[in-house]
Amino acid sequence: MEATRNAWGRNNFITVELHGTLGSLYFNYERLNELQVCLAGDPDDRRGFKTIYTGPAHFHGEVTWNIPGMNIGYGELKSIESYEFIKAVVEGRQPSTSFAEGYRVERVCDAVKRSAETGRWVTVND
To answer: Are the CB atoms for 33 and 60 separated by under 8 Å?
Structure first.
């Protein structure tokens, strides 16, 4: 795991890459409207990452991505987040991210820092 806000040549290179038994996903915040997908079940001669572009069929697509591959920006993302938060308050339910979830993420970040400082594995307890 690697994190920095000060890497030369990177503007907003927040990436997530997931690997599993059925394939891999890769997301890069600098290419906000794309998801890279590789499926393990694809034929050997066509296996590799494919680009999925956001569009009307995706979450909030009817108001943000009228055309597949049409870009949205940071402002639109903040509007979606605000909408989801206000909707949760009106409906009397917990928003998708809670304080408890944020706390758990912070515990992992702290463990990563301690691991880097000590050069050892660090256990994250509940």
So the answer is: no
- Separation of alpha carbons 17 and 104, rounded Å: 20
Q: Enter the tokens of residue 103.
A: 């706390």
Q: What is the pLDDT confidence band of residue 4, given thresholds at 50, 70 and 90?
A: low
Q: What is the pLDDT of residues 86-124, one digit of tens each?
A: 999 999 998 877 888 889 989 998 998 999 999 999 999
Q: How many CA atoms lie within 13 A of 11 on its CB side?
A: 5
Residue pair 57/46 in contact (Cβ under 8 Å)? The answer is no
Q: Is the CB of residue 36 less than 8 Å from the CB of residue 25?
A: yes
Model pLDDT for residues 42-57, shown as the tens digit of each residue: 999 999 999 998 888 8
Backbone angles phi, psi at 60, to 5 degrees: 65, 15
Structure tokens at 59: 């979450």
Residues 38/23, Cβ–Cβ less than 8 Å? yes
Cβ-proximal residues to 78 (8 Å cutoff; 6+ apart), any chain:
none
